[in-house]
């Protein structure tokens, strides 16, 4: 009997060791010493933009691990930029506070422009692939689409409650939004016509479009996390998980829409099969150093190369994670 318990104990230790290995990154680079309040990785993983309280915005080259530029919205001591975006072609960075947003040229490092938003706070904001179009959702339920080249401005008071999440197709033609009114809307930014609407039992907390506008991810504050085929207008899959609620801090379609990457406030990154909704693999980013609670919010994740995933978190760390089975 003693031998049996010894064997069980050894197996348990081995299994625990094996599980913990999935939480050890292949690479780790510090992008903010005292943590960050927002971060975004470019779609191809080459660049990161970090917002930290004391040091403003830092634009990193992830392949060489060097800071290329440092930017400030203003001369205030505490930086309050809480949303960051990088255009898919890597030409522009967008940074936003509750009442203004700025655009930066990644080739020259210079500011492209500052824009004030006074009517109602910005809740979420997105940038098209070339950086020409901006879409933001406000606390009053209004959506605003701006063509930065022509100055065309389209305001859409679609939602009856606060908007929580917005996204824009790569070409800027299609917009997706979700809010407290339990609805998500897909609409054409040229004609201002609603293409499809989605009704949920609870508040819609996250929406994301596949770059070419073929698929949409929509999640409410409970367990409805759905992937829709926008060409057919039909539900493609629902994410399968055991948690009581679906809380995501970041979502991104990768691999031409075949897979989905999600990040959560509990350090967890998950890779999903977009066709079936099955979880394929998950990782836990490293928690904050010198902190009693080893927590971290996953701010952004993307495919680094065919064998790895890259992430940015509130711990101020850029990390690379190995994919066990090449999906």
Q: Which helices and strands occur, and which strands form pairs?
A:
Elements: H1 2-21, E1 27-30, E2 38-41, E3 47-52, E4 56-61, E5 66-71, E6 83-86, E7 92-96, E8 100-105, E9 111-116, E10 122-127, E11 133-138, E12 143-147, E13 153-156, E14 163-168, E15 174-179, E16 183-188, E17 194-199, E18 204-209, E19 215-220, E20 225-229, E21 234-238, E22 250-254, E23 259-263, E24 268-273, E25 279-284, E26 298-305, E27 308-313, E28 317-322
Antiparallel strand pairs: 1-28, 2-3, 3-4, 4-5, 6-7, 7-8, 8-9, 10-11, 11-12, 12-13, 14-15, 15-16, 16-17, 18-19, 19-20, 20-21, 22-23, 23-24, 24-25, 26-27, 27-28
Fold and architecture overview:
This protein is mainly beta and 327 residues long. It has a domain at 122-247: Methylamine Dehydrogenase, Chain H. The chain is built from 1 helix and 28 strands. The protein has one helix at residues 2-21; strands at 27-30, 38-41, 47-52, 56-61, 66-71, 83-86, 92-96, 100-105, 111-116, 122-127, 133-138, 143-147, 153-156, 163-168, 174-179, 183-188, 194-199, 204-209, 215-220, 225-229, 234-238, 250-254, 259-263, 268-273, 279-284, 298-305, 308-313, 317-322. The strands form 7 sheets. Strands 1-28-27-26 form a 4-stranded antiparallel sheet, with no helix packed on it. The longest helix has 20 residues, at 2-21. The radius of gyration is 20 Å and the shape is globular. It starts with a helix and ends in a 5-residue tail after the last strand.
